[in-house]
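Notebook p. 47: complex prediction with flavin-adenine dinucleotide.
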Amino acid sequence: MITFVPEPHLLDSPRGRSWPPAPDPAPPHGPPPDRADVVIVGAGPAGLAVASALWHLGVRDLVLLDRGGRPCGRFFDRVDVLRQRVLRSPYEHHPGVEGYRDCELLDFARLHWSWLTPVERREIRMAQAGHRSVVPVDVFEAYCRHIATLHQVDGRTWRATVREVRPSADAVTVRGDGFAVTARSTVLCLGEERTAAPGSWWHGEMAPPGVSHWDEPVPSGPERLIVIGAGLSAAHLIANALGDGRRVHWVVRAPRERYQCADVNASFFRAEGRARFDGTGWDERLTLMGRHRRASVMFEFRPLLRRAEAEGRLTVHRGRAVTGIAPGRTGGSVVRLADGPDVVGDHTVLALGTTVSIGDGLLPGALTGARDGWPDLDPRTLAYRRAPRLFAVGAAAGMVLGPAARNIDGHRVATARVATAVAAALAGVTAPLPAEAGAGARAGEQVAAHV
Ligand SMILES: Cc1cc2nc3c(=O)[nH]c(=O)nc-3n(C[C@H](O)[C@H](O)[C@H](O)COP(=O)(O)OP(=O)(O)OC[C@H]3O[C@@H](n4cnc5c(N)ncnc54)[C@H](O)[C@@H]3O)c2cc1C
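Predicted complex, structure tokens below:
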């Protein structure tokens, strides 16, 4: 295995450069239309990849629905709140479309040579020479904007929260507050939600004062930060806090923190890695997913965290399970541990990872066919087996494509399968969309149609 550990100076690219302006995309006005060929729920990197691929296949009657309304908005918000300046994936991983004349991420970076720092230029030369190199988040964001503009994605993206997805025999109706869109096919690109804390940690729904989550800004001011979690988000939070001169308590449930060179083993981005999921039994895939989705921190953090621990700026509570969190007597919060003293801090951040959104809650449960938290998908098309007009791209395809499904390159593989299937289904359809198209049908009726 090749270990790629970027030097600290490679990890610090500028953010917020003013890139040459792209043609100003007109955002759509009013509610989404009530009919479309295809609806995509979620306009993250996965939704962007699917929309762009469909554009090349001649499918232009698209509606993208996203809570934030900004293509890739949640991805960049999360990256920025953690102050991550470079991607964890190489230049080949991007949401542009393969096999067409789309500008690749590396070409895009080269075209913007004069905007780049000497370090960034050297990394591009590394990538051109076929070596592993580091992609600035700033370049990636400008590229995503370019891809969105090129494929007319902005003008088809509505800010909307989808509450219900109802497939029928010949269409899928997607509903939210005050709108319903009926389409021939719908692609769920929902990504992952942050994992909630166990209900036993505090009373009531709301976290106690002085507690926030990894994807929210950490308030300025608190001097002693408690970070709970063992993954990369926890590592970023700790590194940022130490950099800001704070003292940190790190609560790790495992006996020791785990370091590795990438968040997904590189083999899973290649055909031989994906082959480990093709035709393999469910239990074996489940074991692989469990092993490769364990919380871990990238090697580049290790020297910093070890040094801070040795200097007493970081206290690591290894092998400690949290049993509760309560407000402190004089502000801040107290974290109770199963078998150890309480940890007292001015603020606590929960970095408990993410949970894959598979469409449950939107779809009738019988249609997701969920098993061990994974949907029942046709591996050839990534269609839900019990709702063949509904598809999944992104982390939800993990049990078909392996752990890389959650990453940008996994979206590329999933998109190729889904876009082809969606376009082929549209090409074979001549009848108009049914007037009702499931818009008025009830969940039970649709389940009966597909189970
Ligand atoms: C901090 C961080 C750094 C990462 N770095 C990398 C990296 O360098 N390389 C890499 O390959 N991967 C990276 N990842 C993994 C990364 O999450 C994925 O590559 C990518 O964001 C997933 O794209 P997505 O479109 O599937 O999900 P998201 O980016 O989460 O997009 C899903 C969208 O769907 C919307 N949505 C969900 N439910 C609904 C609903 N009901 N109604 C309306 N909208 C909805 C969400 O609001 C969101 O906008 C990183 C992840 C994090 C958290």
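Notes: Residues 41-47, 65-68, 73-75, 78-79, 82, 84, 87-89, 93, 161-162, 189-191, 357, 394-395, 406-408 surround flavin-adenine dinucleotide (CB under 6 Å). Residues 239 and 305 are 7 Å apart (CA to CA).
Next step: compare against the earlier run before touching the bench.
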